[in-house]
């Protein structure tokens, strides 16, 4: 039996114990964080400022960019602090709060990606009825429903985790707090917690992935029925950015929460992929592959330069 002495803080070991490597990692992740903030904040501003980007697709993309701002800010600042600190500690309450937001953000992103897949289905498969299908009320309901469902799911899981007793062993072989890690540190019976987390995660992952898969099934069928090569290319280009983000996110996030907490390097890689790298790449993927976004960005910077003169 492990000693349950109710620790007040945990130790986050981070990515490396070598001081020189930590300095390099600090610079690297600081640059990544600044790029994430700049890219996603610019996307939010562009969506709000340009009237041409007030369609449902860009409405959801604005939510995704705001989510990525929040997602990255939940984990990266604490990681940067610990890379430069000797103590590398986080309070139990802070760890639980971080685990809640990581879990909530992950669920929200999955739901938003599924909603965006449905939007692409409506645009490509029913172009004449697109405006009626994706009404303003439906778009707002789908977006806020995604946030609400994920936050409720995270709240249920974290309330159960708050009743756990934690053991004297309080070292976390990770750079952030996640629910599977907290279960590993507890000396309570965590069977209920694991079951609830797996069931809720699998339910959200299965429903959202099924919606994405069925949407793209109809999209591919519609694209193949288009006679002209130019028409097929144009139709596919409207959803290629979204498909890239889906593959990046679902591949790493689902694997991370389905694998047991063991402190392996693979856990760190998957967590970095969906919580640090993907939020940085999302605005790049959507801006580089989307002519309307690139045009809006140039227009915004052009107006800014004129004001500067």
TrEMBL record:
The keyword Cell membrane applies. It comes from the Eukaryota. One of its GO terms (molecular function) is olfactory receptor activity. InterPro entries: GPCR_Rhodpsn (IPR000276), GPCR_Rhodpsn_7TM (IPR017452), Olfact_rcpt (IPR000725). The keyword Nuclease does not apply. It is found in: Cell membrane. Residues 39-286 form the G-protein coupled receptors family 1 profile domain. SUPFAM superfamilies: Family A G protein-coupled receptor-like. The chain crosses the membrane at residues 20-46, 58-76, 138-160, 194-219, 240-259, 271-288. Pfam families: 7tm_4. Keywords: Cell membrane, G-protein coupled receptor, Membrane, Olfaction, Receptor, Sensory transduction, Transducer, Transmembrane, Transmembrane helix. It is a multi-pass membrane protein. GO terms for cellular component: plasma membrane. Belongs to the G-protein coupled receptor 1 family. Possible taste receptor. This is Olfactory receptor. It comes from Sciurus carolinensis. The lineage of its organism: Eukaryota, Metazoa, Chordata, Craniata, Vertebrata.
């Amino acid at each position: 039996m492990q000693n349950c002495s109710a620790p007040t803080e945990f130790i986050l070991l981070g990515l490396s114990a070598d001081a020189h490597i930590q300095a390099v990692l600090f610079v690297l992740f600081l640059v990544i964080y600044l790029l994430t903030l700049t890219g996603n904040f610019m996307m939010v501003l562009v969506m709000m400022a340009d009237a041409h980007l007030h369609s449902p697709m860009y409405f959801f993309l604005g939510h995704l960019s705001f989510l990525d701002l929040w997602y990255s800010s939940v984990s990266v600042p604490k990681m940067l602090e610990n890379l430069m600190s000797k103590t590398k500690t986080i309070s139990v309450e802070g760890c639980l709060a971080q685990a809640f937001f990581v879990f909530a953000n992950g669920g929200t992103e999955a739901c938003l990606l599924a909603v965006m897949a449905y939007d692409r289905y409506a645009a490509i498969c029913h172009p004449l009825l697109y405006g009626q299908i994706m009404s303003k009320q439906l778009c707002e309901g789908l977006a806020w429903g995604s946030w609400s469902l994920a936050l409720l799911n995270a709240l249920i899981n974290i309330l159960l985790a708050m009743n756990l007793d934690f053991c004297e062993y309080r070292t976390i072989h990770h750079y952030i707090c996640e629910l599977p890690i907290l279960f590993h540190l507890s000396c309570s019976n965590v069977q209920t917690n694991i079951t609830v987390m797996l069931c809720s995660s699998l339910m959200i992952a299965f429903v959202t992935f099924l919606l994405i898969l069925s949407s793209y099934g109809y999209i591919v069928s519609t694209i193949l029925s288009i006679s002209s090569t130019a028409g097929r290319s144009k139709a596919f280009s409207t959803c290629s950015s979204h498909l890239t983000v889906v593959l990046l996110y679902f591949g790493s996030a689902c694997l991370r929460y389905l694998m047991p907490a063991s402190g392996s390097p693979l856990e760190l890689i998957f967590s970095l992929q969906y919580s640090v790298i993907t939020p940085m790449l999302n605005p790049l993927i959507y801006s580089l592959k989307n002519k309307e976004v690139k045009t809006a960005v140039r227009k915004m910077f052009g107006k800014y330069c004129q004001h500067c003169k």
